[in-house]
Amino acid sequence: MASSAPVQTRALVPAASFANVLEDISKGDSGKSAIFRHQYREAEFQNIDIREGNEESGASELHLFGITDAGNSVLARVIGFRHYFRYPTPPTFEASDVGPFQERINEFLVQRLNGNQSQLPSASEVGSESQRINVALENRRLFIKISAADHRDIPVALVKGQIQYRDLFATSWPETSYGASYPYTLRFMFDHEMTSSSWLELMTGKYDLILPENSISHCQIEVSVRAEDLSVCTAVETITPASRRVLSFDIETDVPPEGFPTPDNESVLQIANMVFMSGEAHPFIRTVFTVGTCSPIAGAEVLSFKTEAELLSAWQKFFLEADPDVVIGYNINRFDIPYLLRRAQILKLDNFPYLGRKKAISLRMKGVPWPVGSAFDCPGFEGRLLLDVLSHLRQYYKGLQAYTLNSTSQHFLNEKKEDVDAKSIPLLQNGDADSRQKLAVYCLKDVYLPLLLFKKLKCLEVEVEAAKKAYVPVNALRENSYWKSIASRHLAAGGRYLVRDPFCRPSVPNHSTDKTSSKQFIDETSRACRIICSSVGKFIEEGWRYQYFTNFKVVLMKNCLQGRTIPKRHGLDPQSRSRMKTSHPSKCVAFQKIDIREGSDGTGASEIHLFGVTKVEYSACSTVCFCAEQPIQAGHSILARVRGFDHYFYYPAPPGLSDADLSPLRDCLNSLPALSTGSTDDQVPTVSNIEIEEQSTTTDGTARSYLKISLRDHRQIKVISDKFLFKGQVQFRDLFSSPESSYEAAVPYSLRFMLDHAIKALEWLKIPTGKYERINKADALSHCQLEVSVRVEDLLVCDVVDNREKFAPLRVLSFDIETDVPINGFPTARRQSVIQIGNMVSTLGQPEPSVRAIFTLGTCSPITGAHVLSFRKEADMLEAWQKFFLEVDADIVIGYNITQFDISYLLNRAEILKVSKFPYLGRIRSSPQRLNGWRPGHLKCPGYEGRLLLDVLHHIREYHPGLSGAGAYKLDAVALHFLDQRKEDIHYTEIPKLQNGNADTRKALAIYCLKDVYLPLLLLSKLECFEKEVRDAKAANVPFNVMRENRALKLVAGRCLAAVKGDYIVPDDPP
Q1: Which of 85, 373, 415, 439 has its CA 20 to 30 Å from the CA of residue 863?
Q2: What is the 3-state secondary structure (H, E, C) of 398-412?
Q3: Of the residues 457, 492, 519, which one is the last residue of a structural domain?
Q4: Does the pLDDT of residue 908 top 60, yes or no?
Q5: Nearest partner of 58 among 2, 120, 131, 146, judged by Cα
Q6: What is the spatial distance between Cα 910 and Cα 900, in angstroms, rounded to a whole number?
């Protein structure tokens, strides 16, 4: 029998921003102060829950629970934000009354608290400021703004007729307050432009780290920050959620002979659990807790206990160690959670209700413990999201015939529960270990099916979207439904007028039961809670605006704030890669090369540019292989600028040429007019070296002497080999008067590098510790997250075949455009504009895309699960898409027929509209895409430098020839053939009508466009298009992109590879 649950603790993986914080936590000791100033870089996390709280002094603070990019749990305790409301100023109220009136309010609070002296009074700030009551009245009035250090004092701060001050606030003054009914958390969200699941940033050196022994939560990271130092991102971009931990659980109870089980009579027999990370396909934890022994279950861990009390205690510890961000189940709000709480109460398990992230907060039922009247009565887990899949289905999928788990699973998943009748549960429990195993499998299936429904129906994404639209936290959708009406009234006001509170005021809260003397209470008031005054001023219409509302109206017009938006975080958007941690030469770098290009440094010397994606970074090691060390980072784009490799070719050595002649011959070549650049003192000669080597021209040929001429600038190789040597124009002791053919001068520089270093397509490479220099952003050539300079001799090929065959986490962008369609004929870029661009971003090997975005010309209604960005002008849309493309930083760009249509169409439209920055879509900043003709075709379509381009249509034409039927290679036919799916049912002639309609018709067109993006992604995975292209590129010994861009190079590479293996050199073809 197991005595305790296994440790399922969340891994403490340092996030990029919090890495130093976690290091400080690990080094902390109890002798240090509770908090200390953190002086490292800014820190970012995604908020998942927000709660009200109080400091030890009684002042209010906001508790923002969240998750970092790396999946670490965070609690940010926000201090310094005062709750406030407004009250109309009586006619005779003057500026001189502000101070005395403030004193009177504090006196009133002391009297009203009535003995709860330990609670510090409100540090109220009373100021008179001008606000309009209603836009329609267009009158100017003065309001008193009253701020409270303790948000709980707001309801009692100004009760009509009970504050006696010069009889100005008597009952004869028939006014109500404005904003006093706002919950403290909503006021904070409104004032800080914060929506559900916003990304937040703590500015460098502006937050205090709270050590674990002094923390109030179970979070891995707990910080204290002032409200003005907490930044909510402001740019509107596509959301990419942080990596959330999701726990699905279900309980099995004893069943009475007649009726329904109740916690007062029937015990808990089993609790099944599954934990998975959002975005992953399968749960990584499967655990079932049982009362009584249970036979092992394949793929799951079984923990058995003698008593129910032991089971519940162990499960509570398991729950805290698993530390889920989202808790789900089927009907858990009305059954599982209340049942567990009631059983723990009966068994006197005092620690059990403490399941939230706050150590001192327990779960308490709102109504009677049992039976539960409503799902709204179920308590939530503070700091975690609670989502009942049954309640979600009832709300968003009305009209189903039945809502039992068996029925909904059959409807949505085509799966059913295990065949165990409820009445047979006691028999199985009272049997043996094998019978209890059958019950445990049944219980685990009841955990797994809600998890599948949760993922299939994107329940969390829908709830987050609804919370964003309602402008409330996600948990408030269930716990505080009336908040939605408050938020809607606030948003309707739009900053143009104040929102009147309901006439009936809330009751006065009971702050504390601690009995402290009234004198101490008043002394602490004057010492710690000084009231800050502000002067009375007239309202100036032109000068007053809430910045949030101004932004909100602009954003709303663009349809950007439709539930899928998130602020931009200092240039790194949620759809972009994870932030790169500072790298230095104490770490070696391993990456997978995806593209190779030729370049040169500032002095004109040649460089090889190797673009790739990191798999991991390792600590120092001496072997040329993948170490078995814990990876630090993965999935970052990298450019390795390889220097020190000189291009070269061979030329027959004329008789009479000796080693002593090599240096004079080099000087002779460098002095030729075509190579001389007006040399200066620091000018490096183009010809760097000449050697004499014995080479043969066939496998069994006789070796003879050849000159190996190495060049510092690879671009000069044809100048020397063709113009001078081949044509006999090199005058050196009359030795080159009879011109001969050169050898291997036609081999491109990049191919020569790959041949000499045995590097193939998508090879794994490694730069050892201390052998590279990181190039800062100001001097970088590329958009890559990491750019390094390395000497050729320090670049190593990983020699473990298993690792070489695996792919790094390559980012895949699939896109498709929709254009206007003429009445007759085919759209052309000269006349028809681009009206929509659909996009999906995924990681190679992942089943679902992480980003779905649609750029539209004209407004478009929201699309569930996708981000809609609308624009008035086509030029604005193209410019925004170019920025989106660079932020996504895709490694592989795919689509259907994009090389013959979409890419060239976009480039032509950008040229016509004079969007000058648009062609810069590659990873080299200064290298634009250039068209070779108006519609260059598949083979001549420009690629994206540093990225891989794969057209799914042309891949299928090449690898799956012979598909039969008219239009057999159209996307609809191909998708039906391979996927058993079809495109959306919209004929291309209907596109102009849909575009010229309204937001809803453009939504139908956007769904059509997104489907044309999604199907190529499915085909890419189903047909293993990328894997096949990589295999053929490896076999041909050429870079991946060369398979399309320069097919003739495959012949050159084949000849050269055979020569390398046969140890001979290849002659150049005569011109």
Answers
A1: 415
A2: CCCCCCCHHHHHHHH
A3: 457
A4: yes
A5: 120
A6: 17
838 forms beta bridges with 816, 854
Count: domains in the chain: 4
Tokens describing residue 508: 């006065």
> Is the model's pLDDT at 569 over the cut of 50?
no
- Asked if 378 and 372 touch (Cβ cutoff 8 Å), the reply is yes
Residue-wise pLDDT tens digits, 690-709: 999 999 988 777 888 999 99
pLDDT at position 290 over 90: yes
The span from the first CA to the last CA of the chain, in angstroms, equals 85
User: Does a structural domain hold residue 731?
Assistant: yes
Whether 289 and 354 share a structural domain: yes
CB atoms within 10 A of CB 199: 25
**Residue 167 falls inside a structural domain:** yes
Nearest to 54 by CA among 81, 21, 14, 29: 81
Q: How far apart are CA 446 and CA 189, in angstroms?
A: 37
Please check whether residue 300 is in contact with residue 444, taking contact to mean a CB–CB distance below 8 angstroms.
yes
Instruction: Tell me the whole-structure pTM to 2 decimals.
Output: 0.52
Instruction: Measure the CA–CA gap between 721 and 725, rounded to whole angstroms.
Output: 5
Q: How far is residue 441 from each of residues 256, 295, 451, measured CA to CA in Å?
A: 21, 11, 15
Considering the domain boundaries, does residue 491 fall inside one? no
3-class secondary structure, 100: helix
Pair of tokens at residue 924: 């080299």
Measured between alpha carbons, how far is 648 from 294 in angstroms, rounded to an integer?
A: 72
Q: What is the pLDDT of the chain when averaged over all its residues?
A: 77
d(CA 869, CA 855): 5
370 and 264 housed in the same domain: yes
- Residue 208 and residue 173 in one domain: yes
Residues 994 and 1008 in one domain: yes
Assess contact for 896 and 1015: CB atoms under 8 A: yes
CATH code (residue 977) = 3.30.420.10
For residue 438 the two structure tokens come to 């059958």
Specify the pLDDT at position 89. Answer: 72
Residue 950 · residue 941 · CB < 8 Å: no
Q: CB of 805 within 8 A of CB of 1010?
A: no
Between CA 533 and CA 543, with CA 538 as vertex, the angle to 5 degrees is 100
- Please name the residues in contact with 343: beta carbons below 8 A apart, sequence gap of 6 or more: 263, 267, 268, 308, 312
Cβ atoms 612, 622 nearer than 8 A = no
Angle, CA of 50, 55 and 56, to the nearest 5°:
150
Q: Which amino acid is at 75?
A: L
In this structure, the dihedral spanned by the alpha carbons of residues 557, 233, 129 and 544, taken in order and rounded to 10 degrees, is -40
Q: Are residues 822 and 884 in the same domain?
A: yes
In the DSSP assignment, the letter for residue 743 is B
Q: Which helix (H) or strand (E) holds 434?
A: helix 433-456
Cβ-in-10-Å burial (0-12, 13-18, 19+) of 122 comes to buried
C-alpha count within 13 angstroms, C-beta hemisphere, residue 102: 24
Angle of CA points 341, 342, 347, to nearest 5°: 100
pLDDT tens column, 165-199:
666 665 444 456 677 777 888 888 877 778 878 88
411 with 361, same domain: the answer is yes
Collapsed DSSP state (helix, strand, coil) of residue 98: helix
- Give me the domain span that covers residue 650: 584-617+634-672+684-805
How far is the C-alpha of 237 from the C-alpha of 567, rounded, in Å?
Answer: 6
Element (H, E) at 1052: helix 1048-1062
Of 805, 830, 845, the one marking the end of a domain is: 805
* Residues making up the chain, counted from first to last: 1071
Would you say residue 449 lies in a domain? Answer: yes
Q: Taking the alpha carbons of 533, 536, 537, 541 in that order, is the dihedral positive or negative?
A: positive
| Sheet with 326-329: strands ordered across | 301-305, 285-291, 268-277, 245-253, 326-329, 385-388
Do residues 392 and 444 share a domain?
yes
Question: Same domain for 1025 and 973?
Answer: yes
